[in-house]
Write a structure and sequence with these properties.
Elements lengths: L6 H10 L8 H6 L9 H47 L5 H14 L5 E6 L9 H10 L3 E6 L1 H8 L6 E10 L2 E10 L12 H12 L5
Antiparallel strand pairs: 1-4, 2-3, 3-4
Helix pairs in contact: 3-4, 3-7
Length: 210
């Protein structure tokens, strides 16, 4: 390709390909277009349209980031308040009650669970759930089968979704902390469980959890 182009060649190419700029809004957005002359108005209008669309897209992205920031602030504040409440617990029963109150009140979740893995039930129903958490690296977010929803949240047998994390004391899994919903799309596999993991870590260190 030559270092310089003859303007006549460029003009000839554009005349032969009248839709060239129409199909390349990114190029059109950076061109310095005249405000007078034949055809100039339509090009300027098209350039303004492209820039306006980009501006709208940028505003939408900014609004999304602002929403994420506000939600993170809300979760951080809810986490802080929940930790302060959990510190008042004297035993596992207290911790369970406090968490259930906080998860629906402070966190505004549909349902919550704190399942202790030793001696909660005689049929060992919690064991498969613990195995699922271990396979997921200590946290799970996604759809639960009806029997799993019933085991964790005590709901009527119906499919739902949940975010679940293991509560550990040293190297041992001693419980499962979770939030859930009857909506199978509320907690998805790609969602993170950072705040829940932090709370589970705190609970595992409390004397009342022993």
């Amino acid at each position: 390709m030559p270092d310089t182009l003859d303007p006549k060649d460029v003009e000839a190419f554009l005349r032969a390909h009248p839709n060239f700029l129409q199909d390349r809004p990114g190029l059109l957005a950076v061109l310095n277009l005249p405000h007078g002359g034949e055809g100039a108005v339509s090009l300027v209008e098209r350039q303004v349209s492209v820039l306006r669309e980009r501006n709208i897209t940028s505003r939408q992205k900014l609004a999304e980031l602002s929403d994420i920031g506000r939600e993170n602030d809300r979760l951080l504040d809810a986490t802080r308040n929940t930790i302060l409440a959990l510190l008042a617990g004297e035993n596992r029963a207290d911790l369970t009650k406090i968490w259930l109150d906080q998860v629906t009140g402070t966190f505004k979740a549909e349902m919550g669970a704190l399942v202790w893995l030793d001696g909660v039930s005689d049929d060992g129903a919690e064991a498969p759930l613990a195995s699922k958490l271990i396979r997921q690296g200590g946290g799970f977010s996604g759809v639960l089968r009806p029997e799993e929803m019933q085991t964790v949240f005590g709901t009527a047998a119906a499919e739902g979704s949940a975010a679940l994390v293991a509560i550990r004391s040293g190297e041992d899994d001693i419980g499962v902390l979770g939030v859930g919903s009857h909506d199978t799309q509320r907690y998805r596999a790609e969602d993170g469980t950072l705040f829940l993991e932090y709370l589970a870590e705190v609970i595992g260190q409390l004397p009342a959890s022993g």
